[in-house]
Design goal:
Neuraminidase, 24 strands, 434 residues, single chain, 8 helices, 2 domains
C-alpha cells in the first residue's frame, strides 16, 4: 500500500465504505456511533480531496487500500475507472476553495450568536438567587411522572436502546435481584424480559453496538463480582464475556468510541483507584491510567471526546471533585487526567448523562448542568420529585428525555418510581423567501 494521509481507523472505515456498507452498518461493526462514522468520513473526504463515497472507493483502489473488483493492478484499475481529465469544478466549488476561510468565519459568528441567544433564554439560563415563578412554571411543564416499575429497586443499571429504557438488576427490600424490565415510552408500560444470569446491585450499564454491557456488582452475600454479562435486546438473551481484572461494584462507567471505560469502585474491602478499558471486538480488558485518588460510587459520562468522572465517596466522605479523562492521550501514554470545576455540592450515588456538549448530573436536590465549553454549573430544580428521593439510575433517550429510574427515598428504602425531564427541544426555523 502506498503512503496515504489516513490513520488506521480511517483506513478501516474507507475499506468498509468500499464494500458498500452504510454508516449504520459500519458503526455496528466497529462498535462506534453513527455520528462518529460521519465525523471520520468527513475527515477522510477532506484528506483525500473527494466529495462522494464512489470517489473515495476509487481512491482506495488506486492506492491499494482495497483490491479492484476485477482483480487488476491498482494503477490500471484507476486508469480504467476514471477519466483522463478531471471534471471542471463548479463555480460554487471554485468560490468555496478560494474563500473557505470567509465562509468558516461567517459560520462561526452565526454559531456564537445563536449560542449566546440560547444561553440567555429562560430555558437555558442559570437560576438566580431570587426565585423566578416563570422559570419554575417552565421547568414544571418539562417534568413527568410515569408508570412505575413492578418492583422497587436501588443501585440498578439503566440503559437506553432503540427508544426504550431498560432497568437491570438492583437492590430490592429482599436483596439483589436479577430482574430485567423494558419501558416503552409510546405505551407507558413495562415488560419483563429474561433475567440477568447473576443477581447484583450497585451496577451500571453502557450500550456498545447493539448490546447492553453490565460489569461486576455486589452479590447477595456482600461480596463483589468480576463477571461481565451482556444483554442482546434484539434476541432477548444474555451471554458472558471476559471477566473483569478486578471484582468491583459501585464503579463509574462510560462508553467512548466503541470501548467501555470503568473507573474506581469498591472491591469488597476498600475503595480503589484503578481504571480499565474494555474492547468488545477482542473481548479483552486493558489497564487505563489510574484515577488521581481512590473513589467509589462516582458517576461518569462522555462529553466532547473526554470522559468526565464526577463526585463519589473516598472511603471517608463524599467528594465534590470533577475530573476529565482523555482516552486518546491515555492510549498514547500521555497524562490523561485533568481537574475540572467541582460539583456545586458533594455527591455520591449520583448519575450523569450528556447530550450535545451538555453534561447533566442528577444529584439529591436537583439536576446540575454543565455547558461546554463555558464550564459553569447551573441548577435545574426537582419540581416533581419529592424531597429526599435520591440515588436514581438514569438514561437519556434519543428524543432528549432524561429518565430517572428507581433509587431510594429519605428512609433509604428502594423506589419503583420512573420520572423523566425534557432536556432538549427541537426548534424549527422557518425559511424566509424574499
Amino acid at each position: 500500500m502506498e503512503n496515504v494521509p489516513l490513520s488506521e481507523r480511517e483506513i478501516e472505515i474507507l475499506q468498509l465504505v468500499s464494500q458498500g456498507k452504510s454508516n449504520k452498518e459500519i458503526a455496528a461493526e466497529l462498535f462506534i456511533s453513527v455520528n462518529t462514522v460521519k465525523v471520520h468520513l468527513a475527515n477522510i473526504f477532506t484528506k483525500i480531496d473527494v466529495s462522494s463515497r464512489t470517489e473515495a472507493t476509487l481512491y482506495a483502489i488506486e492506492y491499494g487500500i482495497v483490491k479492484s473488483p476485477a482483480g487488476e493492478p491498482a494503477a490500471q484499475a484507476s486508469v480504467l475507472s476514471t477519466p483522463n481529465e478531471p471534471p471542471e469544478p463548479s463555480r460554487f466549488q471554485v468560490f468555496f476553495r478560494k474563500y473557505w476561510w470567509g465562509v468558516a468565519l461567517v459560520a462561526l459568528f452565526l454559531i456564537l450568536g445563536l449560542s449566546s441567544l440560547l444561553a440567555n433564554t429562560p430555558l437555558f439560563a442559570a437560576p438566580t438567587e431570587t426565585p423566578n415563578p416563570y422559570l419554575s412554571e417552565l421547568y414544571q411543564q418539562r417534568w413527568q411522572e410515569l408508570t412505575p416499575m413492578s418492583v422497587p429497586r436501588a443501585g440498578l443499571a439503566a440503559a437506553s436502546y432503540s427508544n426504550a429504557i431498560y432497568a437491570i438488576a438492583g437492590q430490592t427490600s429482599e436483596g439483589p435481584t436479577s430482574l430485567v424490565e423494558r419501558y416503552d415510552p409510546q405505551t407507558d408500560t413495562w415488560t419483563k424480559l429474561a433475567d440477568k444470569p447473576t443477581a447484583v446491585s450497585e451496577v451500571s450499564a453502557v450500550v456498545l453496538g447493539e448490546k447492553i454491557y453490565v460489569p461486576g456488582g455486589k452479590l447477595a452475600d456482600g461480596k463483589v463480582s468480576n463477571c461481565l454479562e451482556v444483554f442482546d435486546p434484539r434476541k432477548g438473551t444474555w451471554e458472558s464475556k471476559a471477566e473483569l481484572p478486578l471484582a468491583v461494584s459501585g464503579y463509574a462507567l462510560a462508553a467512548y468510541e466503541g470501548q467501555m471505560y470503568l473507573f474506581g469502585g469498591w472491591d469488597g474491602e476498600q475503595v480503589v483507584d484503578q481504571a480499565w478499558r474494555y474492547d468488545p471486538f477482542n473481548d479483552a480488558w486493558h489497564a487505563a491510567a489510574n484515577l488521581p485518588s481512590a473513589r467509589a460510587y462516582a458517576t461518569a459520562a462522555e462529553v466532547s471526546g473526554k470522559i468526565y468522572v464526577l463526585g463519589g465517596w473516598d472511603g471517608i466522605q463524599e467528594v465534590q471533585e470533577s475530573l476529565s479523562f482523555d482516552p486518546a492521550r491515555d492510549l498514547e501514554g500521555e497524562p490523561a487526567w485533568q481537574k475540572k470545576p467541582d460539583l456545586p455540592e458533594a455527591c455520591s450515588d449520583c448519575s450523569a448523562e450528556s447530550i450535545s456538549g451538555m453534561l447533566f448530573v442528577i444529584g439529591t436536590n436537583g439536576i446540575w448542568q454543565l455547558n461546554s465549553p463555558y464550564l459553569k454549573w447551573a441548577q435545574i430544580p426537582f419540581n416533581t420529585i419529592p424531597a429526599g428521593q435520591h440515588g436514581f439510575s438514569s438514561a437519556l433517550s434519543p428524543e432528549g428525555y432524561l429518565y430517572f429510574v428507581g433509587g431510594q427515598d429519605a428512609a433509604s428504602a428502594p423506589l419503583d418510581t420512573l420520572y423523566r425531564f425534557r432536556v432538549v427541544y427541537t426548534i424549527s426555523i422557518p425559511n424566509v423567501i424574499k
